[in-house]
Design brief:
Length: 250
């Protein structure tokens, strides 16, 4: 894993977007298409704003997969990740193919199977992800399942994860936060040829320290990124403030 630290979250967003453009454009040159996985949440704001404003990508040749989504909320809900992705990414650049997670579906296990069959036929060039305050990767809360081969899973959200969603302003009360979600699995994320992880803000500092400096463990799900040879972690000075070591290889 390669670590880069910047002064502000705005600089994180610009630097991460430049790396994403490099990966996507190279993939299109090499094989005529590119495939990426899109994350949501507050950590992605600046990154997606920069990515969608860069003119050098032929989005018609790009396929997008969705990282995770709550179960039981409709697309019109303010916290819907489908709504987020349409507003901040899809409706701005219009990727050639888009596969969103239908969180309001009656049988979420069938939705996992549907998406799993599709992504199983694709080579993913890059996954855009973040790290949760509890160290989660996507909605794989600790202890995460590092072993399942299933591309998508129905997962239970732990208390700290739900509190993060509330504190970021997606819900009016803790009771409103869904207890379950559909999440891409750890192994499926790790199959991506490249991973771009953007983690701003001091509230993520302890999780960053734990995932980088403690043992790789399901109790620190994002620590698994240290095993990926082409993972890029973009931090600001606030999220990196507890680290013993600065930029470089982890």
């Amino acid at each position: 894993m390669k670590i880069k630290i910047f002064e502000t979250k705005q600089r994180i967003g610009k630097a991460a977007a430049k790396e994403a453009v490099r990966i996507l454009t190279n993939a299109i040159k090499e094989k005529g298409e590119a495939v990426f996985i899109a994350a949501t949440g507050a950590s992605q704001f600046e990154f997606l704003e920069n990515l969608t404003s860069m003119p050098s990508i032929d989005w018609s040749k790009i396929t997008m997969f969705h990282l995770d989504e709550y179960i039981g909320i409709q697309e019109t809900h303010p916290a819907s990740f489908r709504k987020y992705l349409k507003e901040k990414l899809i409706d701005k650049v219009h990727p050639g193919s888009v596969y969103l997670i239908k969180g309001g579906i009656e049988d979420p296990e069938l939705e996992c199977e549907r998406l799993g069959k599709i992504i199983g036929q694709k080579e993913v060039d890059v996954a855009f992800v973040g790290i949760g305050e509890n160290g989660h990767l996507a909605f794989n809360d600790p202890p995460a399942n590092f072993n399942t081969e299933r591309p998508y899973l129905v997962v239970e959200l732990d208390e700290s994860c739900k509190r993060q969603q509330l504190s970021e302003g997606w819900f009016k009360s803790l009771d409103e936060v869904p207890r379950r979600a559909i999440s891409m699995s750890i192994k499926q994320i790790m199959k991506s040829k490249n991973i771009i992880c953007t983690v701003p803000d001091s509230r993520k500092a302890q999780a960053v320290k734990d995932c980088l400096e403690d043992d790789i463990s399901p109790y620190r799900p994002a620590s698994i990124l240290r095993k990926h040879r082409n993972a890029f972690l973009f931090l600001d000075k606030d999220s990196a403030k507890l680290l013993k070591k600065n930029e470089g290889e982890f």
